[in-house]
Write the structure tokens for this entry.
Amino acid sequence: MRFLCKNIINTRSNLSTKVLKEISWRLGLEYKIFEHKEKLIDVRLVRKRNHIAHGEALKVDGKDFIDLGDEVIKLMSTFHNLIENSAICEQYKNVNTP
């Protein structure tokens, strides 16, 4: 029987496409689904989040905020579905482990 290591998923406290790629790889999930959203994740989401988290003033348009929120919910739903499908198909048995 094979056991996964503790702390195999490391978000580095700030999800970026680099971290998402690593998590996808570790879980045996296809990352290509997210490639067309890299700019949204790294620029529109992570960069803005970092500015705000470090106390910088950032003007946020209401429509842009709602649109970004909708996109993030779609990405989270897609990731959830990938994980769920992987579990149902027992793909975790072929996961890349360190």
About this structure: The CA atoms of residues 17 and 38 lie 6 Å apart. The chain has a mean pLDDT of 86.
